[in-house]
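Standup notes, protein team

Yesterday: finished cleaning the Paracoccus yeei set.
Today: Sarcosine oxidase subunit beta family protein structure.
Blockers: none.

Input for Sarcosine oxidase subunit beta family protein:
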Amino acid sequence: MRYSGFRVIKEALTGHKGWKPIWRNPDPQPSYDYIIVGGGGHGLATAYYLARTFKQARIAVLEKSWLGSGNIGRNTTIIRSNYLLPGNEPFYEFSMKLWEGLEQEFNFNAMVSQRGILNLIHSDGQRDAYRRRGNAMLLAGADAELLDREGVRAMYPWLNFDNARFPIKGGLLQRRAGTARHDGVAWGYARGADRAGVDLIQNCEVTGFRIEGGRLRGVETSRGYIAAKKVGVAVAGSSGRVMAMAGMSLPIESHVLQAFVSEGLKPVIDGVITFGAGHFYVSQSDKGGLVFGGDIDGYNSYAQRGNMAVIEDVAQGGMALMPAIGRARLLRIWGGIMDMSMDGSPIIDKTPVEGLYLNAGWCYGGFKATPASGYAFAHLLATDTPHDTARAYRLDRFERGYPIDEKGMGATPNLH
């Protein structure tokens, strides 16, 4: 079934009796050419591009719960490509270009809204840093505008411009950035992969890998053994636990990242705003709720819940930026498990086990990278060569001395 305005009108006139499930729910086959472990955004996108773009077949996605039950279904929905370093900016700009044509490509409304993102400037040194970042973005083919104080005021006059500690002196604006509906992204990729013949197998947890002579033969699952020629692992915060079953120790730590949604309010923020003097970012959903977040909790955990210290820190950032937020009531809080790499940048690479591939280390950047991550991982699986924009994301870059330290924090995962 292909969706269209005509189809919506037809179903409305016929009692909506013609809609069908948007993907199948098959049982696993005894073997596949490709198995993708993880039914989140990156895993589903990988399967989609592997089948549609690289014309591969006999593909399965194995998800231990339901599709989209992990971080893809619980995030702050921001998409952007305002990075600095050459190892990152071309990749995220490639992802931004894929976002711009995504809904038309897989014929599903992912609610991609290019409403813009504004990174606020609070000091002269920060202005210089953002000018450098903006120039790097322009060189990579992205868009960037450096705004002065009055340029920011024209967009958001209600911000606290004269905060004694953090006065607003300007901002770096990327107009093509914005938000997308996280569930819609997962469902769109799942539907597209299913239409291309991919088996999406839910409630199928991988419990081990069968490796013989350094070569992967298949995976052990809660629904039995499944043979495979190649296996790609894209399980975000569970990367360390899953890869440990293959005898690998990753340069990754798992941390909790909390996010928050307020009660529904009248429209006040038409874009995305980030607080330059602390880690706070906020946008407004179509339902009216303010969606915001900040730092990870800073300690290793696999629990999808956080602590009060970070809640207080995020609230302080929000109050410093826009004191009016203190009048809004908080509707809900949730936590996701982040796979924090040593340098804050991702890993898309082969592993020492022949036939086993890894997609991990996305830290805060997982959602915005979904299209490019899936495309680059599919390229690697299909061709055994890295995609041009992902050549820097090697697993051994820490050993070789080639980290991609976007924040300049060093090899300390909890600071990224």
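Follow-up from PR in the comments: The longest strand covers residues 252-264.
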